[in-house]
Amino acid sequence: xxxYNCQNPISEVGLDRFTKDYVKRDNVKDADAILVRSxxxxxxxxxxxxxxxxxxxxxxxxxxxQDCAEHGIVVFNTPGANANAVKExxxxxxxxxxxxxxxxxxxxxxxxxxxxxxxxxEQAKKNFAGTELYGKKLGVIGLGAxxxxxxxxxxxxxMEVYGFDPYISVKAAWNLSRxxxxxxxxxxxxxxxDFITIHVPLMDNTRSMxxxxxxxxxxxxxxxxxxxxxLLVDEKEVLKAIDNGKIRKYVSDFPNRTTAGHPGVLxxxxxxxxxxxxxxxxxxxxxxxxxxxxxxxxxxxxVNFPDCDMGRPPRGGRVAIMHRNxxxxxxxxxxxxxxxxxxxxxxxxxxxxxxxxALLDLDTPVTKEAVEKLKKIPEVIRxxxxx
Length: 387
Fold this sequence. Notes:
Layout: E1 2-6, H1 12-15, E2 22-24, E3 33-36, E4 52-55, H2 65-70, E5 74-76, H3 83-98, H4 101-110, H5 117-124, E6 137-141, H6 145-156, E7 160-164, H7 170-175, E8 181-183, H8 186-192, E9 195-198, H9 212-217, E10 222-226, H10 235-243, E11 247-252, E12 265-267, H11 276-296, E13 318-324, H12 329-339, E14 344-352, E15 355-362, H13 368-375, E16 380-385
Parallel strand pairs: 1-2, 1-3, 3-4, 4-5, 6-7, 6-9, 7-8, 9-10, 10-11, 11-12
Antiparallel strand pairs: 13-15, 13-16, 14-15
């Protein structure tokens, strides 16, 4: 029997995938797995029983990833599960920034009691005239699950699309439309595009990537869209550029005291993934990852340990070993198995930075003595008998 705890409301469509072997617990101390959306876990005390944390979404800034790794706790996220929802919000942002729909709607509401509104609107509508997306140049920075969808859809709007991602995956490259121009230098996007949308993770080298120097390169009247992370943009510099006419609109899904209420800024309250479908997709993916890890030892979409998929355990059993990525550890644990006359029929060992993860498929069940010996290897973080 396994226990899980939800730190936020999680879609029942996902939770319903748990089998009868899983029980929801209110006390996190009883949990083998934690499911979370936005709740911050940095101050949480992690107990020995906890095996994994699954974020029903892409960003993991609310989870202490390194601390989890040191405790042998796998952290999952669900990349791509909310990609379509965010893609649609990006296009809503482009349409709202190009056409003054919000201003036009406000005028209608303000003049709702005007008996001649049908006539007066013909005079008023010129104040809300805008521009079309067709024929405009769109720069997509980051061609992951969301960026690829945005780029591909934009071609169907008749936009000229430029994509930048020096680390584009093989899968993303295959999915990217041939109509999208792949750019090697992000500065070319800054210099060329009428709309620029960002879809990269927040890291040291992406923090404030839209800054004063980037803005200097941009065309006058550019629209910047940020549905990824607020800290990717130096928003004070963006506001200066709006005030001096360099930037036409800044569209963001992350309101704050700096940007809220400023002319030329369109803000939504973090609605990018707030659809029923996206929440269902994220929950389903998170639950599937949790069950596959707990029952089989497989790791899919982890942000702190290497991915591994060896299917279901064999009859003899399976042992998972988390260890530090140093020389000689593999030799130590294979020697322990050999000394205890336990044959390893198949083995996986992969590293990720300073960490490594191993799965050992066995012909015969591992002994308690062997497990205790494995735990005593200085570089080993956690040993788990899967079966």
